[in-house]
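Suppose a colleague, Dr. K., hands you the sequence of a protein chain of 409 amino acids and asks what its three-dimensional shape might be. Before reaching for any lab equipment, you can write down a predicted structure in token form. Begin with the sequence itself:
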Amino acid sequence: MSIRFGFRSPQSPEELSDLVAGSVSAKTPFEVRGRGSKHEVGRAVQAGGVVSTEGLSGISLYEPTELVLSAQSGTPLAEIEQVLADHDQELAFEPVDVGAVLDSGPAQASIGGVFASNISGSRRIRAGAARDHLLGIKAINGLGESFKSGGRVMKNVTGYDLARAFAGSWGTLGIMTEVTMKVLPRAKEVRTLLCYGQTDQSALEAMALSLDTPFEVSGALHLEAALAAGFSDLSLTRGLTPVTAIRIENFSNSVRYRMARLKEKLAAYGPGDELDAARSRLFWQEVRELKPFQNSKRPLWRISTAPSRAAKLIAAIRRSLDIRVMYDWAGGLIWLDTDLTTDAGAVEIRRALSEIGGHATLIRAEPATRASVDVFQPLEPSLLALTGRLKAAFDPAGILNPGRMYPGI
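The predicted structure, expressed as tokens, is then:
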């Protein structure tokens, strides 16, 4: 018989393992959380309680010269980033702070939640996704059994790379208790070139051109005018026009040279203002926090597609919905919010995706909406069956975040 146990925050992996085993015996599914910054993403979990990893906190290993850091999964991301900043290092994949646009508020994420969601930021076009920086994990499966995968270097995997499988699984396969990650030196200089007034199509062309240069562009973003006005830097509100932002990072002399050459390359797109290091860091931090989408109840979507198809996709969606759009990854990632419809625009968005290509995740919506639509991209039958088998292998009792991503899984 299933029982309810409220909120639990184990203080050690052993305590967590016992709790999971007890939940299996009691047939009590539960919601897996880190520090709760993303608990509103996904379908509501029908569970007997909440198990949080926030009690598993602290950096267990940091070797700056080896560019490796291990931390318990409930460690606040902000704590890790501060330690890294003290050593002029960073998480190069720029984790997005989804909590900033949800009720949980900004700067609440745990490092385990960062990897469990695998939501990477603007630098992904150069540095890769969160999962590409995950070297190893320690975790507990749905039977309360502890295991580990990977280690402290990139080339140490034999058999299945379980760490990568857990990245993006949203706590449905197991509960990570410790993560080991690659860190990288922080760039000495950052500059951002702004181009004004571009259409979606011309902005995508400019961003693609910038990425095709040897100048190591690490950010390529386009904002429609209404969203550009939501940033702190007044350069983005000049003339209330769309803004295209292209970032270069490196040593000071290198950045100055590359920025000058980039301006020449993009002359046809009217390169305008150039943000210095301080203004650039603030701007891209606000991108990470999805600042123009904050303080709103409009449903928010995260869409991935081929950059060459991004403008066509948005045009198709815009024919049916009132949307505001931010293109990242040179158009490969699209953040958009919609007007308040009963389905958050799911039917129209998924119809356009089926014709043009890509996938979408609903990040923000009312609970009733999230319960009635596909929050994560629907899977093909064969892939859905494979996902079900993977879930059954790690969580045969189905107690970990059941149904959060897909019904019955």
